[in-house]
Each structure stands twice: as C-alpha cells, then as structure tokens.
Amino acid sequence: xxxxxxxxxxxxxxxxxxxxxxxxxxxxxxxxxxxxxxxxxxxxxxxxxxxxxxxxxxxxxxxxxxxxxxxxxxxxxxxxxxxxxxxxxxxxxxxxxxxxxxxxxxxxxxxxxxxxxxxxxxxxxxxxxxxxxxxxxxxxxxxxxxxxxxxxxxxxxxxxxxxxxxxxxxxxxxxxxxxxxxxxxxxxxxxxxxxxxxxxxxxxxxxxxxxxxxxxxxxxxxxxxxxxxxx
Length: 231
Fold this sequence. Notes:
Blueprint: H1 4-20, H2 27-38, H3 68-75, H4 82-105, E1 106-109, E2 124-127, E3 133-135, H5 136-139, H6 145-159, H7 182-193, H8 209-230
Antiparallel strand pairs: 1-2, 2-3
C-alpha cells in the first residue's frame, strides 16, 4: 500500500481538485483531513486488519485491499467531517492501489511461474517494469518494493503538494484506530522528511514514475468527486 508521504501527496492532489471545483477548505479543515488520512496507518504493518476494514474472505490472499462496504456499513458514507473524509479516502486509495494499480506494476507467481493470488502459493514476483523475477520475500523488502517508497519520498515532497499536518487534540468517529497514536506517525514522517535525497529516485526497482503519477492524479480526482457530492 502507499506509504505516509504518498498518502499526503494524494491528499494534496485531492485539495487541488476540490479547489478547481469551487470548494476551498480552510487550514483547519485541511489539517483535520490530513490527520484522518494518516489515521489508518497508525497500526503496525501486521496489525491493520481492523483499521483498514479488510474482509475475512480475502485473508488467504497476499494483497488484501480495504473493503469499503464494511466501512460504509458501520459508518455510512454521508459524513462531511474532514477527518472522516480523510480516513475514508485513505481506504479508497489503498483499495484502488490493489484493485487497479498492482496489475500494472507486478505479477504474483506460483512455483510453476503462473499467476497466483493465494499467499501460501506465491513464491516469486515479476516486476513488469523491466521484467525481472525475484523471490517474493526479497521483493517485499527494502531492496525492492518497500525501498522504492523511501527512494521516492524526496521526489514527491518536491513535485507534489505534500503538507505534513500539525497534531491537534481531538477524536475521529472511527474507532478502529487511536487518535493519539498520530503523534508517533507524525514524528516518523518528520524523520523521513529529513532523510531524503532527490538522487534516490534514479534507483527505483519497481515503479515507473510517470505511470504512478497518472494513477495518483486520476485517483485523487475520483476521490474529490466523491467528496464534492457530499458538500
């Protein structure tokens, strides 16, 4: 799933789309939205089942997208409170990432070299940008997939409307994540922002930047359209 910086970049693009269509949120609204957009990721990587509303039927898969219907069933889809909107659009981006973008960048393969969805049968990954095939454990590491997120941070911070929000006391209606845990996330984002190098983007192993940018801008436009329907 997208990392912290990419979620903030996506949120910034959503703001731009909202403003294009006449809704110009103030600083407080944006800050609450940004905090909400980070809230699902206050949970550790292996403890996001609840905060990301994952469906039990998908637990056998390696790539598990949020199930927005589970979120809507519990919280509806009519709230205009900015932290709720930020939370919801975080889930939307993560779902679209798995359902619409993954197939553009990788293929999950079984031992026989055929495409595979079940986590226990996946042994390797084909990187479509370049065609390289690597063991699955090696792919999901700092050498390849996760490392690319770090290598792209400087690029996104320079070329996208990334704004790191300020923590403010409050709550969010969503109970699957703890608001106060945002303090640790914000501290980590600030640490990441101080350790970036524009030259790192030349070392990407998995992603094609042009394709990724197109996806993010298109997705932000679709998310903004959902928000505008409520306002």
